[in-house]
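User: Modeling request: complex.
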Amino acid sequence: MQSEGFFKQVHEVAKQVPFGRVTSYGAIARYLGAAGSARMVGWAMNASHQDPDVPAHRVVNRKGLLTGKHHFEGTNLMQQLLESEGVEVIDNQVQNFSELFWDPTLELG
DNA sequence: TGAATGACTTCGG
DNA sequence: CCCGAAGCCATTC
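Assistant: Request completed. Predicted assembly structure:
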């Protein structure tokens, strides 16, 4: 388990996502220099269960779709979490996604 | 070693 | 914008 570094980085970026904002796996991967490894970001998120501080619900795919909701408890926890932050979610899709989108390569880098 | 898997992305139609 | 197919790469079996 020496890959914690990669997970840690993903977790750190996820934690830096502002309240009520969302980002995509690819954006995080690109920011970490792991462009093309967007799937690994998802894999890292799977390990985010180790860090409860990681707002995995703020990470969606490039379409703003809550593809990872099935990895949360229940069936709509992810949506509830987002809505609790003021993010409107309909049919597992983030509304106004283009404005709520938070790109780490843009905001951080 | 090799095949299968996945919380994705990009490209062509 | 939607759809199907291909590409990517770490992890698992």
